[in-house]
């Protein structure tokens, strides 16, 4: 367990808010408004219908569009009406680039406004659920989107510093204005703020937390980016498409194109699409060790959710940032077998109770059991969850397995070589029929497992190889061979996506109005029975094996030892199944087509290089929670 970093927390909670335990004697008629606690949870005692709705424009520290004026961010607020007469409330904040396009959540919601410009419908459930419990909900249009000034920069400094300015305003350190241009102060809040969001939204919470801003007490990043480089690259392999950063900026910005054209031309010039290398442009967008945001500067507590089968925000976006957080940062995580998912859609009742307890503990100072339970929930399969003290599992230990000339995979090495040609293939094609000869892959399998074997952490692979060309894309898969019913994260239809499917009906969350009912479609696990399952993968441009910042072409015919990490996982191989190691070339599944117009054909077709592998000096290192019977 990690020690809590409270920073005068107990004193701050008392401010002007009185926490009342359910069942305590009633206060007098003249007492200040009170927040009600029962069972360690705030209760919905405030009226959502009567809540105060308002908006301001917060002045940031940046001029992202170069018009000579500091960008103003549109901030929409809903808070209990009692906060207008003495009650000070904490803030749950969602900063999003998606309010204009494409919309927020699985149901693609957008804001609607009344005649005074105040929001009548907030996307998602945070307002419906938490305002009645005594929180303010603050919805921020990211710089360059919706009603905010400036230009979006695809995880750049201005994206982050805009959110920081709002936290500063909530704590009295920045200026905001009303529609008349008059300054507005956030006198109704304790200043204690928690940021929450999915994907890009979650990345903004991570980025703002990495500035070390005071008043941001907790973040809840859901499938969040922590490295802009890994959004479109994998170890030197280009996995998006030329101009991907520009496309993303344009995608969330519905203003006339010429407004931000100069900014996007700089992004095109600086992002280095022609090489796929890591450079200063990507360093700015690195929230682990970058110049704007650093994991070591995080003061806020963290409740992170990550899907190990997310092909958009890959698992290393979570694992590498998580490992760099200061040890005194209080933390919690859910690690799932889903794809790019907000857990609200997957495990709704458990999620809402857990999130309620988390925010109550971190923002209200409620004494509940959220920190007395093991902090990490791990999903091993459909309806199979365990809890543990950290992630990866603290008991995980590295086990080395080696490919053999006869196609087996075991603890002892064997002499011999194997070769294949680097060609772009899907993972299904690479992993299918492992006993069949395929000129574009080498496949090795363990014997059937006598007992279940669980992996938790980040595997690595080390290849001794020669090429007949200056480079090749080196691909690796870990595969579970054995018939089973698993989460089906691959299916994408109108009724199923990211490992979930809609199951009919709705459930309503919190309180509602005629404009915002807080009701959402129900979903459940989408499963499929199959004979094999790709568990995790890795890919590397061989000429980037020494550095992601510069290419060093290999000498054809010369032998090299190349070692790199695979994507992290938490997965249980069942007894009787076989673990497979597949060595191959370009992984076509990395080529994301987020535009839907076939842009994935723009990237990484495969080099055609012949890769010859010295099996005796090739291995894979697996972080096993339990020992393996493999010999």
Low-confidence runs (pLDDT<50, min 5 residues)? Answer: 1-30, 594-602
Computed Rg: 25 Å
Query: How many distinct helices?
Result: 11
The fraction of residues assigned to DSSP E strands is 25-35%
State the separation between the terminal residues, measured CA to CA.
35 Å
Q: How many structural domains in the coordinates?
A: 2
> What about the largest sheet?
12 strands, mixed
- The name CATH uses for the topology of the largest domain is Rossmann fold
SS class:
alpha+beta
Q: pLDDT average, as an integer?
A: 91
Q: What oligomeric state do these chains adopt?
A: single chain
Net shape: globular
What is the count of β-strands?
35
Helical proportion, percent range = 10-25%
CATH architectural name of the largest domain: 3-Layer(aba) Sandwich
CATH fourth-tier homologous superfamily of the largest domain:
Alpha/Beta hydrolase fold, catalytic domain
Supply the CATH class of the largest domain.
Alpha Beta
Q: How is the largest sheet built, in terms of strand order?
A: 11-10-4-5-9-6-12-13-16-17-18-19
Describe this structure in words.
With 631 residues, the chain is α+β, with helices and mostly antiparallel strands. The protein has two domains: 9-388, Rossmann fold; 397-491 and 526-624, Galactose-binding domain-like (Jelly Rolls), CATH 2.60.120.260. Helix 3 (157-170) crosses helix 4 (200-209). The longest helix is centred in the middle third of the chain and has 17 residues, at 348-364. The model is unreliable at 1-30 and 594-602 (pLDDT under 50).
């Amino acid at each position: 367990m990690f020690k809590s970093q409270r920073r005068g927390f107990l004193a701050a909670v008392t401010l002007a808010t009185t926490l009342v335990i359910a069942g305590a004697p009633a206060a007098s008629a003249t007492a200040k408004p009170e927040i009600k606690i029962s069972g360690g949870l705030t209760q919905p005692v405030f009226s959502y219908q009567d809540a105060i709705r308002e908006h301001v424009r917060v002045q940031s520290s940046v001029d992202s569009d170069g018009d000579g004026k500091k960008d103003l961010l549109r901030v929409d607020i809903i808070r209990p009406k009692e906060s207008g007469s003495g009650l000070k409330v904490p803030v749950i904040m969602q900063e999003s680039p998606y309010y204009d396009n494409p919309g927020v959540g699985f149901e693609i919601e957008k804001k609607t406004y009344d005649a005074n410009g105040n929001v009548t419908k907030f996307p998602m459930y945070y307002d419906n659920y938490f305002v009645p419990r005594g929180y303010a909900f603050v919805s921020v249009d990211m710089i360059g989107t919706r009603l905010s000034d400036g230009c979006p920069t695809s995880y750049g400094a201005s994206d982050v510093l805009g959110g920081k300015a709002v936290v500063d305003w909530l704590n009295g350190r920045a200026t905001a204005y009303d529609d008349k241009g008059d300054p507005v102060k956030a006198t109704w809040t304790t200043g204690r703020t928690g940021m929450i969001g999915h994907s890009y939204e979650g990345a903004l919470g991570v980025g703002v937390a990495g500035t070390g801003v005071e008043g941001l007490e907790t973040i809840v990043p859901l499938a969040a980016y922590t490295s802009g480089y890994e959004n479109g690259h994998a170890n030197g392999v280009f996995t998006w498409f030329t101009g991907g950063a520009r496309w993303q900026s344009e995608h969330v910005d519905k203003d006339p194109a010429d407004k931000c054209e100069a900014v996007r031309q700089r992004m095109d010039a600086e992002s280095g699409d022609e090489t796929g290398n890591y450079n200063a442009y990507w360093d700015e967008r690195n929230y682990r060790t970058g110049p704007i945001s650093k994991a070591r500067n995080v003061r806020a507590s963290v409740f992170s959710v990550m899907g190990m089968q997310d092909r958009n925000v890959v698992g290393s976006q979570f694992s590498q940032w998580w490992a760099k957080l200061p040890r005194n940062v209080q933390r919690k995580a859910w690690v799932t077998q889903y794809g790019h998912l907000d857990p609200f859609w997957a495990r709704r009742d458990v999620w809402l109770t857990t999130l309620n307890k988390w925010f109550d503990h971190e923002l209200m100072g409620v004494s509940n059991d959220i920190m007395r339970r093991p902090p990490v929930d791990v999903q091993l399969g459909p309806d199979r969850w365990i809890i543990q003290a950290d992630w990866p599992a603290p008991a995980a230990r590295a086990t080395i397995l080696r490919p053999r000339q006869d196609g087996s995979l075991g603890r002892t090495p064997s002499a011999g070589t194997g070769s294949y040609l680097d060609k772009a293939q899907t993972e299904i094609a690479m992993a299918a029929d492992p006993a069949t000869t395929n000129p574009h892959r080498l496949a090795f399998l363990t014997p059937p497992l006598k007992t279940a074997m669980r992996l938790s952490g980040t595997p690595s692979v080390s290849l001794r190889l020669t090429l007949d060309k200056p480079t090749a894309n080196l691909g690796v898969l870990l595969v579970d061979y054995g018939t089973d019913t698993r989460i089906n994260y691959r299916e994408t239809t109108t009724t199923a996506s990211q490992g979930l499917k809609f199951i009919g009906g709705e459930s309503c969350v919190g309180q509602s109005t005629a404009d915002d009912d807080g009701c959402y479609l129900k979903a459940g696990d989408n499963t499929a029975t199959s004979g094999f399952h790709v568990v995790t993968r890795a890919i590397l441009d061989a000429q980037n094996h020494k550095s992601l910042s510069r290419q060093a072409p290999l000498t054809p015919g010369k032998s090299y030892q190349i070692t790199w990490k695979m994507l992290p996982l938490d997965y249980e191989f069942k007894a009787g199944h076989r673990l497979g190691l597949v060595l191959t070339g370009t992984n076509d599944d990395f080529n994301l087509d987020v535009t839907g117009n076939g842009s994935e054909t723009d990237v990484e077709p495969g080099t055609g290089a012949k890769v010859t592998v010295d099996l005796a000096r090739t291995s894979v290192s697996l972080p096993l929670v339990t020992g393996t019977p493999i010999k």
